[in-house]
From TrEMBL, chain A:
The keyword Cytoplasm does not apply. Its cofactor is FAD. The gene is etfB. The lineage of its organism: Bacteria, Bacillati, Actinomycetota, Actinomycetes, Streptosporangiales. This is Electron transfer flavoprotein subunit beta. The electron transfer flavoprotein serves as a specific electron acceptor for other dehydrogenases. It transfers the electrons to the main respiratory chain via ETF-ubiquinone oxidoreductase (ETF dehydrogenase).
TrEMBL record, chain B:
It comes from the Bacteria. The electron transfer flavoprotein serves as a specific electron acceptor for other dehydrogenases. It transfers the electrons to the main respiratory chain via ETF-ubiquinone oxidoreductase (ETF dehydrogenase). Keywords: Electron transport, FAD, Flavoprotein, Transport. Transmembrane segments: none annotated. The gene is etfA. Residues 4-185 form the Electron transfer flavoprotein alpha/beta-subunit N-terminal domain. It holds the Pfam family ETF_alpha. Belongs to the ETF alpha-subunit/FixB family. This is Electron transfer flavoprotein subunit alpha. The keyword Transmembrane does not apply. It comes from Nonomuraea coxensis DSM 45129.
Length: 259, 317
């Protein structure tokens, strides 16, 4: 089975994240870049499926040069090879253009299964998997906390507000995963060493028939008009419980008309 | 004024509160038209949609619309967009709502804004990003604006609309039927409001100490008519089901009131609750970062404070 895992480099949530004042895009220099946490679960699931069914796991990332660090981590976990779509023309792409560019790469490299995290920690749009399924004409099995493949059919448990749905489809498919699906493995020392020798193909938009007029800041379907740091919340009242903490809290709730 | 399509969210025929919020929002920007996709629309549901301003109610009543993963709903909306040329399409910013919005955006070659917490003139949307640290105003500049709006972004206000019903027939492509739902499994839901929709959320964290002790949190929630949430520490420990996790990798809530008990307030938890209008924290550690956000904080043992608060609320009701 030919599995492609999408992995995104995002600013570490533990550091201060910013937008750039000049073009209002993500400031990638302001914070450390890390692998989007949910994407590690996606890599783990891909490796598990490969272990059970054979085949190959390819990592796909779209991002500037330094996103290669993200690829290395996935390769160290056990993925076989990687494709890094990197081109200045992609800077400022929104979800529409990102999904377009990634779909073009996926069409070029081919796949039975594409696995993603269900959302990224920076933009958190949660739309990419659905957009890829739409663009690729593949089955959409998203928000999965369990994945089973049998021959050319695939079944997942899709998390819903009320519990879960059991969903069935034929490959090729696009799957997104939630964090309760597995426990991502730590790269071993051997894995880290082996990763250094694994093939990473860096491609530009021309290599995947990506139309420059459909990507980047100028082509984006949406735009940031302006932004500002959120005003700090006004300091609240903090009281120490002297046996009446609950009653005091009730007074506060009453003053705000919650009771 | 041009029409604004509002995708109706419903549970077992009952229109969800978020839809009434979206109709209220749509009314300030154009003529709201509700879109009901799936079987089972009732007279009550229609009346509710009209009460909150729907001038039109488009009804796609086919069972097929709900038998597959999101694609049929996106296809139905895309056909309506082509037929009616609405000024915008609003959906609820739930996981499924956003997926529908994503597919619809591709189908109609339109931009999409996700997780809007407000929407103004020209469909300029407010977003609160990076765990609430930055406020953004963003807009769509290609195609029909598609905006996924977070529950609790607007107070729903009734204002009667004509509620003229128009049946729509949707022809589904084979591609839309690729992923079939073979079974729906409902888990304990109980009488509490849905987490992402609730006006009040009471959440417990590691400080709750055990699964059994979550009854303390539930007691307070029930006294307030609130939903129960949990931190990841609590769901990872198995004290509360994962679907109630609030935060970066859990649900995003924007209630009127959020009460955090025994939760430290890690950045990843804050990412899911920081846009709450009022925040109350109960924590025995005065240095806990949650107090930086709290409008009201009690430094103390939640096992003392929370039951007392619950009793006081019951007394005052
Ligand atoms: C704060 C912020 C808000 C934004 N809001 C919007 C908006 O409202 N509308 C809009 O159109 N665009 C928006 N964008 C732009 C959008 O984030 C990017 O186009 C893009 O990175 C895809 O969105 P996502 O990360 O939210 O995808 P999600 O759907 O949240 O990501 C799901 C998964 O897709 C995969 N993935 C995503 N991007 C890549 C990548 N580059 N390479 C490899 N895998 C990837 C990962 O596996 C990830 O887990 C926003 C960006 C930021 C920084
Ligand atoms: C990528 C990533 C994603 C994450 N996603 C999420 C997410 O979605 N949601 C989330 O919640 N977390 C998430 N986390 C985890 C997050 O970093 C914290 O570990 C988590 O929120 C801590 O939960 P907690 O506050 O309940 O526990 P702790 O941090 O252990 O805090 C417990 C608090 O309870 C207090 N306490 C203890 N006993 C009592 C008592 N008797 N009375 C009163 N107070 C008491 C303590 O003083 C302490 O402040 C994520 C982490 C990462 C790295």
């Amino acid at each position: 089975m030919n599995i492609v895992v999408c992995v995104k480099q995002v600013p570490d949530t533990a550091t201060e994240r910013k937008l750039r004042s000049d073009d209002k895009t993500l400031d990638r220099d302001a914070a450390d870049g890390v692998v989007n946490e949910l994407d590690e679960y996606a890599v783990e699931e891909a490796l598990k499926l490969k272990e059970a069914h054979g085949g190959e796991v390819t990592v796909l990332t779209m991002g500037p040069g330094k996103a290669t660090e993200t690829i290395r981590k996935a390769l160290a976990m056990g993925a076989d090879k990687a494709v890094h779509l990197s081109d200045d023309a992609l800077h400022g792409s929104d979800a529409l253009s990102t999904s377009y560019a990634m779909a073009q790469v996926l069409k070029k490299i081919g796949f039975d299964l594409v696995i993603l995290g269900s959302e990224s920690t920076d933009a958190r749009t949660g739309v990419l998997a659905a957009m890829l399924a739409e663009r690729l004409g593949a089955s959409q099995l998203t928000l999965a906390n369990k994945v089973e493949v049998e021959g050319t059919s695939i079944r997942v448990q899709r998390i819903t507000d009320y519990g879960f749905d059991k969903v069935e489809a034929a490959l090729p498919a696009v799957v997104s995963v939630v964090e309760k699906i597995n426990e991502p493995r730590y790269p071993s020392f051997k894995g880290i060493m082996a990763a250094k020798k694994k093939p990473v193909e860096t491609i530009a938009i021309g290599d995947a028939s990506i139309d420059a007029g459909q990507v980047g800041l100028d082509a984006a379907w949406s735009e940031v008009v302006d932004f500002a740091a959120a005003p700090p919340r006004a300091a609240g009242t903090i009281v120490k419980d002297e046996g009446d903490g609950g009653a005091n809290a009730a007074d506060f709730l009453a003053s705000k008309k919650f009771i | 004024m041009s029409e604004i399509l509002v995708l109706v969210e419903q549970v077992e025929g009952e229109v969800k509160k978020v839809t009434l919020e979206l109709l209220t929002l749509a009314r300030s920007l154009g003529t709201p038209a509700a879109v009901w996709l799936g079987p089972g629309i009732t007279a009550d549901a229609k009346a509710k949609l009209a009460e909150y301003g729907a001038e039109k109610i488009y009804v796609g009543g086919s069972e097929e619309l709900v038998q597959y993963v999101v694609a049929p709903k996106a296809e139905a909306l895309a056909q309506l967009v082509a037929d009616k040329a609405p000024a915008a399409v609003l959906v609820a910013a739930t996981a499924e709502g956003k997926e529908i919005a994503g597919r619809l955006a591709v189908k109609t070659d339109s931009g999409v804004i996700t997780d809007a917490v407000g929407l103004g003139e020209g469909f300029v949307a407010d977003q609160s990003i990076f765990g609430g640290g930055v406020n953004v105003r963003a807009k769509v500049r290609r195609g029909t604006p598609i905006v996924a709006v977070r529950p609790n972004s607007t107070a729903p206000a009734p204002s009667a609309g004509a509620g003229a019903e128009e049946e729509i027939s949707v022809t589904l492509s084979e591609a839309a039927k690729a992923a079939r739902v073979v079974e729906r499994v409902k888990q304990e839901k109980g009488a509490r409001p849905e987490l992402t929709e609730a006006a009040i959320v009471v959440s417990g964290g590691r400080g709750v100490g055990s699964a059994e002790n979550f009854s303390v949190i539930e007691g307070l929630a029930d006294a307030l008519g609130a939903a129960v949430g949990a931190s990841r520490a609590a769901t990872d420990a198995g004290w509360y089901p994962h679907q109630f996790q609030v935060g970066q990798t859990g649900k995003t809530v924007s209630p009127q009131l959020y009460i955090a008990a025994g939760i430290s307030g890690a950045i990843q938890h804050r990412a899911g609750m920081q846009t709450a209008k009022t925040i109350v924290a109960i924590n025995k550690d005065p240095e806990a970062p949650i107090f930086e956000l709290a409008d009201y904080g009690v430094v103390g043992d939640l096992h003392q404070v929370v039951p007392q608060l619950t009793e006081e609320i019951k007394k005052r009701k």
